[in-house]
Amino acid sequence: QAAAARQAxxxxxxxxxxxxxxxxxxxxxxxxAKALAQLERAVTMVxxxxxxDPAVGADLLGDPANRMRWIGEDGRARxxxxxxxxxxxxxxxxxxxxxxxxMRARESARAGNLDEGRRLLxxxxxxxARHGNPTHEFHAGxxxxxxxxxxxxxxxxxxxxxxxxxxxxxxxxxxxESELTATLLRSVARxxxxxxxxxxxxxxxxx
Length: 207
Prior knowledge:
Layout: H1 2-23, H2 32-49, H3 54-70, H4 74-91, H5 94-110, H6 114-131, H7 136-153, H8 156-172, H9 179-194, H10 198-206
């Protein structure tokens, strides 16, 4: 029981540690080479710090992988997602697996493979269901990725509804200041703008 409690605490604290690490030097205007080097250091840190706990380490690899996408390093992101997915399947960590599968779904949609993206999202939802009690963050994160996929598929109304649903989950969990919430607000504003709801888009930005 003591060992299980220590692992639970480590799992709970790990995302904060990763966030703190990644936000160092993470300003929007950081040069590409510097941002890439920072993310590679994060990957190295995860592999070293959590080599004895692959479940936590594999889950954390999704964060630098996701940020690799932001700076245009799609190939490197796919490598890290694949590494994380393999490890998460091996250890049976279904909430982390769901998050990685949902992230991969957006990548497939961005590459023009919507059918593959939908398959990955379905598999991600199944993984969340197997977990039984996923956190609001994991559930909201998958909804966000699905919202992006639907926007790319041309269904802006569906995309808006999904993003708003994810925002409601974040709000209910008291995560109104989270990075995920900020991303979702941008998605909602963009959807309103694309639908011609300009006043609503402006209101979201102001709020």
